[in-house]
Design brief:
The complex is a heterodimer of chains A (171) and B (191). Chain A has a single domain, classed as Beta Polymerase, domain 2 (2-Layer Sandwich). Helices cover 26% and strands 26% of the residues of chain A. Chain A is built from 5 helices and 7 strands, in the order αββαββαββαβα. Chain B is mainly α and 191 residues long. In chain B, 40% of the residues lie in helices and 10% in strands. Chain B has 9 helices and 5 strands. In chain B, helix 3 links the parallel strand 1 and strand 2. Classes of the chains: A alpha/beta (171), B mainly alpha (191). At the A-B interface, helix 5 of A face helix 4 and helix 8 of B.
């Protein structure tokens, strides 16, 4: 099956790089304009479960890489055939200066919390996302903390270490 | 009941009753809460020591901080602690509330919990065994006997400092102060 999905992808889309590794994982490198089309294309071909969206900060290349991991509920059960389930990993790079991308919630509605998290921790703006509100952090004023140029040690020294210990006022 | 303790019971019955009925609030922070189910159920049976978990802070007088404290959790911890009735005792459980532990340079974890609320005692370790909880509780009994478990009195007396530390970490707090604040205390010290 992985050969056929590779051929389908390569024949349908131009400028797409498909690599098969470990027989059960297929890496698909796409351009950022192609993300939605590729996701919709794969959803129609039984990759109907978006397992995860992740983000990688390549600070030297000045790029963010978004990683979409897809798998399918309708694939063959691994107990019957001994085959493992196929995972499709879609990767797209966006410039670090203006990190904007169209939201994937129109294809997979469960992308909403992942995109909120990436927006909060990396500062990527997902256009068309209806609810890019803070998720984990509490009143955050700094740059997003998962970026590589965010210095956690310096932040801790400036915020938490400056708070004085409480001593008894009678002493 | 231990015969040797009869004099203690006659001298201060309220204190002794309080000591042997520590009601611990069900409050889960971090990973240490996984040690609490075996402690309160039949394997280690915390009820031998008079420890019962209760659902609301209004019924509780022991607060176990079981693990790392994130900034959002600190807000909930302060609100819970201020609702508890006196006398109330706090035990920091695990190495993370002591000085951050493995989250020493995390952007979102409170490092020294005793800067924000008063702590009666610490249990070090990552994770401490359930037996360590009982050792801590027996230590707490000794402290109560000697009137040394007075962290809640410290909180009342030094409330300005605690409140200002809380505001430094959390921004402006949306609830009113628990005790009256004499706002000139810190100003006088700065001069």
């Amino acid at each position: 099956m992985n050969e056929s999905i590779k051929e389908q992808l390569e024949s349908t889309f131009k400028s797409i790089v498909v690599t098969v590794s470990e027989d059960t994982r297929i890496f698909v490198n796409v351009k950022k304009e192609q993300v939605l089309v590729v996701l919709r294309f794969l959803k129609d071909r039984k990759f109907d479960h978006l397992a995860l969206i992740s983000c990688v900060d390549w600070i030297e290349e000045k790029e963010f890489e978004l990683v979409y991991i897809l798998t399918g509920y309708m694939q063959i059960d691994e107990e019957d055939t001994g085959q493992e389930r196929l995972h499709l990993i879609v990767k797209a790079k966006i410039p670090r200066q203006s990190p904007r991308l169209k939201t994937a919630t129109v294809v997979f509605s469960n992308a909403e919390p992942y995109e909120r998290e990436i927006h909060e921790l990396f500062g990527v703006v997902f256009e068309g996302h209806k609810r890019l509100t803070p998720l984990f952090l509490d009143r955050w004023n700094e740059i997003p903390p998962f970026r590589k140029d965010f210095d956690t040690r310096k932040y801790v020294e400036e915020v938490f270490d400056k708070i004085p210990p409480v001593e008894d006022k009678d002493k | 009941m231990d015969r040797n303790q009869i004099t203690k019971w006659l001298k201060a019955p309220a204190k002794m009753a309080n000591k042997y009925s520590l009601h611990v609030i069900y409050f889960c922070t971090g990973c240490g809460i996984i040690e609490i189910p075996p402690v309160i159920t039949s394997r280690w049976d915390a009820e031998r020591f008079g420890i019962i978990p209760v659902a609301t802070p209004r019924q509780a007088n022991l607060f176990l901080i079981t693990g790392y404290v994130s900034v959002k959790t600190l807000r909930a911890i302060i609100r819970t602690y201020e609702q508890m009735l006196e006398p109330k005792y706090v035990i920091g459980f695990g190495s993370c509330p002591i000085n951050g532990g493995m989250y020493w340079d995390s952007y979102n974890t409170i490092k020294h919990l005793d800067k924000y609320i008063p702590i009666d005692g610490w249990i070090a370790g990552c994770m401490p065994r359930p037996e360590a909880i009982f050792i801590a509780v027996t230590h707490l009994w000794t402290l109560i006997d000697k009137d040394m478990a007075n962290a809640y009195i410290q909180y009342r007396e030094n409330y300005e400092f605690y409140r200002s530390n809380q505001e430094m970490a959390l921004g402006k707090l949306e609830w009113p102060p628990l005790y009256p604040i004499h706002s000139n205390v810190r100003a006088v010290e700065n001069e």
